[in-house]
């Protein structure tokens, strides 16, 4: 059950990219293809975050405050509750699948 592999990519753009590139030109080394390696980009970004020159990763930023329901009787004011995927129980998944089939 579940994925064997997860493929992801990340693009660094704008001012963040300029700051990292300037740091790498001063401190990094090019690979045999004349480019900076992915691990060097990551190392440069970590060092700049630790030095306070870049804002941290999204996982390190403070959580966003979610407003409480203003009127529980009115469903239009209800704020959705997000359930992280790994926290769903198999019973909950089975119940949801049954509800979707019946509707």
What is the gist of this entry?
The chain is an all-alpha fold. The protein is built from three helices and no strands.
3D structure, described in words:
- The chain is mainly α.
- The chain has a domain at 14-60.
- 40% of the residues lie in helices and 0% in strands.
- It contains three helices and no strands.
- It has helices spanning 14-27, 38-51, 90-102.
- α1 packs across α2.
- The longest helix is centred in the first third of the chain and has 14 residues, at 14-27.
- It is elongated, with a radius of gyration of 22 Å.
- The protein starts with 13 loop residues before the first helix and ends with a helix.
Total number of beta strands: 0
Helix content class = 25-40%
Structural class: mainly alpha
* Helix and strand run: HHH
Low-confidence stretches: none
Shape: elongated
Taking the sheet with the most strands, its summary is: none
Mean pLDDT: 76
Question: Could you tell me how far the N terminus lies from the C terminus, measured between alpha carbons in angstroms?
Answer: 25 Å
Return Rg in Å. Answer: 22 Å
Q: Give the strand content.
A: under 5%
* H/I helix tally: 3
């Amino acid at each position: 059950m579940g994925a064997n592999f997860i493929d992801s990519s990340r693009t660094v753009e704008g001012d963040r990219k300029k700051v990292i590139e300037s740091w790498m030109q001063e401190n990094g080394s090019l690979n045999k293809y004349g480019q900076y390696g992915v691990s060097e980009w990551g190392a440069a970004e970590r060092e700049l975050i630790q030095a306070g020159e870049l804002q941290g990763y999204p996982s390190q930023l403070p959580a966003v405050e979610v407003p409480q329901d203003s009127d529980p009787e009115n469903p239009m004011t209800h704020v959705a509750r997000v359930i992280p995927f790994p926290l769903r129980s198999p019973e909950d998944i089975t119940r949801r699948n049954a509800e979707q089939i019946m509707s």
